[in-house]
Amino acid sequence: MIEIDIEKKLFSHTGEMNLKIKTSAKKGDFVTVFGESGAGKTTFLRILAGLEKPDEGYIKVDNQVWFDSTAKINLPPQKRKIGFVFQDYALFPNMTVEENILFAMEKKDKKFLENLLELIDLKALKNRKPQTLSGGQKQRVALARAIARKPEILLLDEPLSALDIKTRHILQEEIANIHKQFKLTTFLVSHDYSEIFKLSNKVIYIKNGKILKEGSPEEVFLENRISGKVKFTGEVLSIKKEDIVYVLTVAVGNNIIRVIATEEEIKNIKIGDKLLIAVKAFNPIIFKINS
Amino acid sequence: MDEFYQTLYITFKLAFLTTFFLFFIGLPVAYFLAYSRFKLKPVLEAIVSLPLVLPPTVLGFYLLLVFSPDSFLGSFVEKYLGLKLIFSFEGLVVASIIYSLPFMVHPIQSGFSSVPKSIIEAAYTLGKSKLETLFKVILPNIKSSILTGLVLTFAHTIGEFGVVLMIGGSIPGETKVASIAIYEEVESLNYQQAHKYAFVLLLITFFVLLVVYTVNRNFLKADKL
């Protein structure tokens, strides 16, 4: 059980902001921290890790106090049982893949190292320096290194945002795997809806430093949960007039779709606008695509 | 020993000892300057950089006053450490350490600053102390900066003139170094001897720099592999 109630004044390019977060997570939870850039997501993660100090509040993990402003307790990152995966991977350039992982272990456990290398599928590259790896491979090493110390809490700061879609999907599987196998409580900063639905059982939606919504991904992102409607959100790429209707080209996630709109509907819509497209009375054709 | 070889020996001994001591002094100073958020840091930075811009004779003059047996420091050192700092080799070493301080500190400091903050934080989140992070993560990644600091200090000490003349007084076999010897030989129109000193210095300095750039290239290459 993790209980968090913290407050910190942040100075960003948009001015002063008060980060105020009160939430909790159960052991085994996979929590996604969602929100616009500059909302305070990364700072929240860094506060959990002990890399930044809140002005006020407390953080308790299984009845152990990690931070308490009134009792003046602030455990340094070294004493918190965490694994942190940085956005830029932060691998040690002077060490090989194997050395990076070994460095993280309190006791050098060769067998566990072999397990980890197998888990991330990098056995063949264990003697390579990080600079020679691809982004996906680097991120795998960073993951393996983060769990080499056998943490209880895994903190992932937008770990997949720099990767292509295919690699991202593979790594999402691996993260889900690791989360289960090591019985971790995981906090992930992410913007990617499919990632959030696939991985997490809880979402904290932060806006301007405050929690806007909190709950399961369905609760947070789908307003009318049992309506039977199909909804997409997307961005308008082009608007074209064809005969008496208009054709909108909309980017929805990784797909580009075309929808028909009336003159009335497109009145206030211009290229670049965010749209919600909903279909009522709907009987879609469904195909299974994985064999 | 021939005075020629003796002078060269003193020159390189001075450069070697200065570099050696300055490495252990410069490293913590550079670490502090790179990572501390201490309010008065600019003051310390200015002091470290002083020898870069101050005429060596000014520095030499003040050191002469401070090191003199009549001063507090001079008498203290002489009484408790048994060291005479004026017109002695030991005094030259101390003066050179002060004079070459920025040449050791600046490259290492910029090396420290170039290390991505995230890899230092990553080491902390992996349970590593600040000291272990310094030795196993930071220093191995700034090898080329350290080498640059060492070599610049060495070369700069060989090339110093004003300070050693003021503090050392050019005593043959004790404090006379090659750069002063050249000046004295030229003054007495002994060009041939001046050539010998000059050529040896030129050759050795070039060779040292060549080695550094070759090694540095390998460091950079190794980091990429």
**In sequence order, what are the helices and strands of chain B, one letter per element?**
HHHHHHHHHHH
CATH superfamily of chain B: MetI-like
Task: Tell me the CATH superfamily of the largest domain in chain A.
Answer: P-loop containing nucleotide triphosphate hydrolases
Strand count of chain B: 0
Largest interface comes to: A-B, 28 and 19 residues
How would you describe the overall organization of this protein?
- The complex is a heterodimer of chains A (about 290) and B (about 220).
- Chain A contains eight helices and 15 strands.
- Chain A has two domains: about 1-220, P-loop containing nucleotide triphosphate hydrolases (Rossmann fold, 3-Layer(aba) Sandwich); about 230-280, OB fold (Dihydrolipoamide Acetyltransferase, E2P), CATH 2.40.50.140.
- With about 290 residues, chain A is an alpha/beta fold.
- Chain A is about 25% helix and about 35% strand.
- The longest helix of chain A is centred in the middle third of the chain and has 17 residues, at about 165-180.
- In chain A, strand 4 (about 55-60) and strand 5 (about 65-70) form a beta hairpin.
- Chain A has helices at about 40-50, 95-105, 110-120, 135-150, 165-180, 195-200, 215-220, 265, and strands at about 1-10, 15-25, 30-35, 55-60, 65-70, 75, 80-85, 155, 185-190, 200-205, 210-215, 230-240, 245-250, 255-260, 275-280.
- Chain A is globular, with a radius of gyration of 22 Å.
- In chain A, helix 2 runs parallel beside helix 4 (about 135-150).
- Chain B is mainly α.
- Chain B has a single domain (about 5-225), classed as MetI-like (MetI-like fold, Orthogonal Bundle).
- Chain B has eleven helices and no strands.
- Chain B has helices at about 5-35, 40-55, 55-65, 70-80, 90-115, 115-125, 130-140, 145-160, 160-170, 180-185, 190-225.
- Chain B is globular and about 65 Å long.
- The mean pLDDT of chain B is about 90.
- Classes of the chains: A alpha/beta (about 290), B mainly alpha (about 220).
- The interface between A and B is medium-sized, with 28 and 19 residues.
